[in-house]
Design goal:
Length: 97
């Protein structure tokens, strides 16, 4: 039971984190201060370097289960930035015409 909760933890947090990050990306573009390309690059960097930081935490966790779960969960949850940075290209650029 406990392993199943640990395994599904990042899915729930990623689901909840996706809404504020989408709102933040849209508000950054709609404010006119940031270009669409800049916002995509920032969120794509967040979505790729975040899991790398989580894996670094995981590498030094040794036998600390709580630290390992926290590092893996945070690393996978930071991957949500990929949706605002990379995967939105298909929806916005190809179907925007």
């Amino acid at each position: 039971m406990q392993v199943g909760i640990y395994s599904s933890l990042h899915y729930g947090i990623s689901f909840l984190l996706n809404f504020p990050m989408s709102w933040l990306a849209d508000s950054m573009v709609n404010s006119g201060r940031f270009s669409t390309v800049f916002v995509r690059k920032v969120f794509n960097s967040f979505g790729t370097f975040g899991p790398a930081a989580g894996l670094l935490v995981l590498a030094f966790a040794e036998c600390n289960t709580a630290l390992a779960v926290a590092g893996m969960t945070l690393g996978l949850c930071m991957n949500v930035g990929i949706f605002q940075g990379f995967k939105v290209n298909l929806l916005r650029d190809l179907f925007d015409s």
